[in-house]
Write a structure and sequence with these properties.
single chain, about 290 residues, alpha+beta, 15 strands
């Protein structure tokens, strides 16, 4: 109708050839599926589908509002947990439907792909059992249960952790991080706003990225030695990632952080002070511009 109107009045218009290309879903729906539904006796199929889509959009908005309120309450009840961990006890206290809505909201907040209903229910079954060490994978994401907590990561991260080079690094030289997807910058922010918030002095210090070594012990800031294997376990690094997870060290051989999992307390920035912040750009939204990896 609109095309006829324009042609009758000789008004210029643009014709997108993609609108006739059956490789696109929207074209097949408009030119194949909807005519077939009308021929089968459903003349109002398009209107009904549009109405159902509007209703689903409303339900999505309601679910997002519900999650925002629940998330605020959850963070107040569990201030000791970072946003990357969920309490299994809390999840188990929710009904099955509420648990699914909460998990979807949490994963979207973390910018992790939401699993299908089937994989989400498999995750719920694991949560109900509360079995430590259990892992659930889906296209674009992965979850791991340990110590009464649930953690999740975007699936590509496991590959990225294996594709980086060891070597020296200094933030003051604006040298990119060697780990794909990670960025850094000096920020006037609370330490818990990013994956890692190091004391400002580390921005001017020569540091070193490398992998773990067999039987290695860590020299803490208090001069004590601890097995690195035990620290990786306490930081909840999954077993298959411990060999390649990036570790940042200072010149004296002190471990500063386990990327994405742990920051040494002695190296952390005081609350509210300027910090050298590191974050995964694919999983942590941030304000401003940082220096990324190559």
């Amino acid at each position: 109708v609109l095309r006829d109107y324009l042609e009758q009045r000789r008004l210029p218009f643009l014709n997108d050839p993609a609108n006739a290309d059956v490789r696109y879903d929207r074209v097949r729906v408009r030119n194949v599926l909807l005519p077939q539904l009308r021929d089968l006796g459903w003349p109002h199929a398009a209107a009904n589908i549009a109405r159902a889509a509007d209703n689903l959009a409303d339900m999505r908005e309601i679910a997002e509002d519900w999650f925002a309120l629940r998330w605020q309450r959850y963070r107040a009840d569990y201030p000791e947990l970072s946003a990357e961990r969920l309490s299994l006890a809390y999840l188990q206290s929710l009904s099955a439907a509420a648990q699914r809505v909460f998990l979807r909201g949490w994963l979207r907040k973390r910018q992790i792909s939401v699993p299908s209903r089937e994989r989400l229910e498999a995750l719920q079954g694991t949560i109900a059992q509360g079995r430590g060490g259990a892992r659930i994978q889906w296209e674009g994401g992965e979850a791991w249960l340990r110590g009464g907590l649930l953690r999740a990561w975007p699936q590509p991260r496991a590959t990225a952790e294996k594709e980086w080079e060891e070597g020296p690094w200094c933030a003051a030289l604006e040298k990119p991080l060697p780990i794909p997807g990670w960025q850094f910058a000096l920020r006037d922010t609370s330490p818990d706003s990013f994956h890692h918030a190091l004391a400002e002095r580390f921005a001017e210090t020569s540091l070193y990225w490398r992998r773990r070594r067999q039987g290695e012990r860590v020299l803490t800031g208090q001069g004590q030695h601890r097995p690195l294997k035990k620290l990786l376990l306490e930081a909840e690094v999954p077993p298959d990632r411990r060999a390649d997870v990036p570790l940042l060290w200072d010149e004296a051989g002190h471990l500063i952080l386990i990327l994405g999992y742990y920051t040494s307390p002695w190296a952390s920035a005081p609350h509210g002070s300027t910090a050298l912040c590191l974050w995964n750009a694919g999983a942590q939204p941030t304000a401003g511009k940082g220096v990324g990896s190559t």
